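This section describes the prediction task in plain terms. A model, or a person checking by hand, is given the sequence of a single protein chain and must write out its three-dimensional structure as a string of tokens. No templates, partner chains or ligands are provided. The sample shown here is typical of the held-out split.
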Amino acid sequence: MGDSDARIWEEEDLLFLILGRLPAVSFASAACVSKTWHRVCSRILSRPKLASALSLNSSPLLALQEVLDKVLSQPIFPHFAIAHVLGDFCLAFTLQYIVGKLGSNVSVVVSRDSGIIGRDVATGEVREAKLNAEIGAYDGVNALTCNQGIVLTVGFMPGLKVDAIPLLRMPEEPAMVDKFIEDIRGCSICFSGQPSPIALVIFGDSRSDVKYVIDKLDYAMPAETVIVGDEKGRFLYQSAGHRGKSGERREYFVDAIALVFARDKDKTSGAGEIKFHMALSDSMLVLNAKYKTSSVRATDCDTWLTAKQEGQREILDGQRMLDGVNAELVDRVEYPDLYIGVTKRRRYCIRAEKPKLVTSLAFHGVLGGDEEYLYVDGVGIKTGDCFQFFYSDPVAAVRALDGISVSLRSLDDELGSAGFPLHTRGVGAKAQKRLVFGGLIFACCGRGEPYFRQPNVDTAPFVNNFPEVPVAGVFCGGEIGRSSSCRDGLVTRSCCHVYSSVYLVMTYDIPSYIDG
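The expected answer:
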């Protein structure tokens, strides 16, 4: 290397140190100054990055400004953004404000939920906060409650492309599920040349029942595609593909939105690889008695049913089934939230594809029962479906979280603590270094501090294993996490859960060459 080359490297190293301290907006401007500055900026942002911040400022506008200032305080080129808000935030204004700061080519989803999870914008400490109206105080513990708040997450994903795809519905018509899936496949083909994205983050509207949609997505996507999300919220979105935002086309309703993460077919040769890992922490316990529905009546939003207990001929009404549940629950748990887990065997197909039989488990909250029917929320139950009663249990939830922590710890041992690339595979040849760079949590709105009687329980598995890694999340009305289990000798799919927490961990494989 000549003196001139050495001088160029020294100048670029100095630029690297200076430009790396710039906030995101100034950094983006610096990248346009010259080819040299652009090359240095590309070195600074050569790896994926997740930036996130939470604010409980009593002023929604100030809270929004605080989280934006925080996530844009360091270099980042945003590819997507997710904002969860509580209380008095105007969704339309929040979306418009974020898009104005990040640009119209960034996919943005803004949703309203019952609780938020993230690192405080001032202290950096992880906080789990829920609306006052939702929880309040209870004996022995003062829950962290608030009137409003926001958690904002911005992601930079080199080697991937991200877009927001809506699930559309015409008034008085069913949702266009097949078109939704075809649009997701088409988006992935456009980005990667393959019909299957590596991950989908789904946001459903609380006014619609999207369980069938999620089950059909599970059928349509290969096992390698990670699917997580929030089943029941209220949202607006901005698509990077300029398909507009919900509400722009008044003839359509938008029942769900999917953030599609797909490989970039034009990514630089030799670039690293982003991977998504999902873990599910459940708290549901099942009662022994098994039932088969005898009659089913469905309304717009709930179902009335009778059933026979396994091995019995007598048809049971709702009151008699609940009497049996109470007999089983004696001395086990007081006033549990009760559900039926229905095993559904359904045939799915997209357009003219050959139908395939899929077995899935769907949870329906028990609304009550009388001398005629058992009343449960949701629809989609058929005569002949089998079910059992389930209930949530905090002790079981803690045990499950311990298991998740162990699983993440093994991932941490492989990847290197605190997300730093400490572990290397291969000597004298192409090797892999890997880092954890971010995480998302989708937790049931029934969990949190009041449920566990102590704070920050749902975030503990992630934070304890990756204490320096950005993490954000939400307490939602239905957590989505693609999973399967073996029930009665059948592989049973399950995507929409209750009283659980779903963890999405993002990792990055860094290719390198190591001399022997």
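For orientation: The chain has a mean pLDDT of 84.
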